[in-house]
């Protein structure tokens, strides 16, 4: 798999194509197989780690200089374990010139508040993969909106957990719901 990836990179296949058409689609299939009981958890974890390694390889080969502009925080709320989609979005936002601070997952709310106070982001991107964690996102958004009031960064939410939900932004309290990197970029341009 890695030789194919390196070959595609050498041929100039765009970063986003590798992420979205190869890595993302394979992870969706892995998740489907796991849900159906056709793939053991250890293989799902192994494939996830290989995907993260491949993403790091792609990023190293396409990295840009540090950006000093106002940042965006990206994180998965509560005890959400799934972070690869969030990492993909973070890397793609960086590739499009955004200053991204990737916080990952399982960060206590007090630390998220401190990160906002210290870095003063203009937006926060939350990713939720498992519907069980939607309530965690609602709680976090409520705390942030109460704590920062009108100075709260724009909160963008997305992830596979919302596939069956209508009015996601209204239901969660987020400012915007986005399903793709293009939708996120469109929102960011309007802030």
Shape call: globular
Task: State the low-pLDDT regions, or none.
Answer: none
Largest beta-sheet details: 5 strands, parallel
Strand content: 5-15%
How many β-strand runs? 5
Report the structural category.
alpha/beta
The N- to C-terminal Cα distance equals: 39 Å
Percent range of helical residues: 40-55%
Query: In sequence order, what are the helices and strands, one letter per element?
Result: HHHEHEHEHEHEH
| Radius of gyration over C-alpha positions, nearest whole angstrom | 17 Å
Mean pLDDT, rounded to whole units? Answer: 91
Keywords:
191 residues, alpha/beta, single chain, five-stranded parallel β-sheet, 55% helix
Give the secondary structure arrangement, pairings included.
Elements: H1 2-10, H2 15-35, H3 41-62, E1 72-76, H4 84-95, E2 100-105, H5 109-119, E3 123-127, H6 134-148, E4 154-158, H7 168-172, E5 176-177, H8 181-190
Parallel strand pairs: 1-2, 1-3, 3-4, 4-5
Helix pairs in contact: 2-3, 2-4, 3-4
Describe this structure in words.
The chain has 191 residues and is α/β, with parallel strands linked by helices. The protein contains eight helices and five strands. Strands 2-1-3-4-5 form a five-stranded parallel beta sheet, sandwiched between helices. Helix 3 runs parallel beside helix 4. It is globular and about 50 Å long. The protein starts with a helix and ends with a helix. The model has no long low-confidence stretch (mean pLDDT 91).
Quick description:
With 191 residues, the protein is an alpha/beta fold.
